[in-house]
Amino acid sequence: MIRQLEPSEFPLAAEVIRASFLTVANDLGLTEENCPKYVGFVTTAERLQTQFEWGWLIYGLFENEQLIGYVSISKVSADNDTDVIDGTYEIHNLAVLPERRHKGCGKQLLDFCVAKIKESGGYKINISIVEENTVLKNWYAEYGFNHIGTKKYDHLPFTSGYMEIEYA
């Protein structure tokens, strides 16, 4: 079951995000020293509360009443950060606990997001990934996302990759 999370559940959601993203950190050699802003190190209940206050929609995937997955959705804003780009959304921090992976949970979360975004009149979905995480990049590509570019930030030891999918 997927449902919107209550702020009281944000501490548990932060744990799920950190546990999920730390496997990527370990695979790519990311540490708090060489990548202190990586989501696997910085996600807290307070950070999720701030995102909630920004208007992000925050969801959890539950199995037997246990939170095993997380995802959030936001409308995309223009460069001036005040004008919303009609129909364009971003999916953030799709996470599944490592022991629950490869059982369709990630696809279930992604299908849910696509349905919610379409219900809201959305037709384009953006995501950002660690470009070097080829398993994840290929997973999104198999779903139908197109790779649209990369950017190397000085403060990150990896390349940020960007993907999108559009619906008629």
Any overview of this molecule?
34% of the residues lie in helices and 34% in strands. The protein is an alpha+beta fold. The protein has a single domain (2-127), classed as Gcn5-related N-acetyltransferase (GNAT) (Aminopeptidase), CATH 3.40.630.30. It has a seven-stranded mixed beta sheet, with helices on both faces. Helix 4 links the parallel strand 4 and strand 5 (124-130). Helix 1 (10-28) crosses helix 3 (45-53). The longest helix is centred in the N-terminal third of the chain and has 19 residues, at 10-28. The relative contact order is 0.15.
Radius of gyration: 15 Å
Integer average pLDDT: 93
- Note the overall shape: globular
CATH topology: Aminopeptidase
Architecture in CATH? Answer: 3-Layer(aba) Sandwich
Strand arrangement in the largest pleated sheet: 1-2-3-4-5-7-6
Write the layout of secondary structure elements.
Blueprint: E1 2-4, H1 10-28, H2 39-42, H3 45-53, E2 57-63, E3 66-77, E4 84-96, H4 105-119, E5 124-130, H5 134-143, E6 146-152, E7 159-166
Parallel strand pairs: 4-5
Antiparallel strand pairs: 1-2, 2-3, 3-4, 5-7, 6-7
Compact summary:
By secondary structure, the protein is an alpha+beta fold. The chain contains 5 helices and 7 strands; from the N terminus they run E-H-H-H-E-E-E-H-E-H-E-E.
Keywords:
single chain; 168 residues; alpha+beta; Aminopeptidase; 5 helices
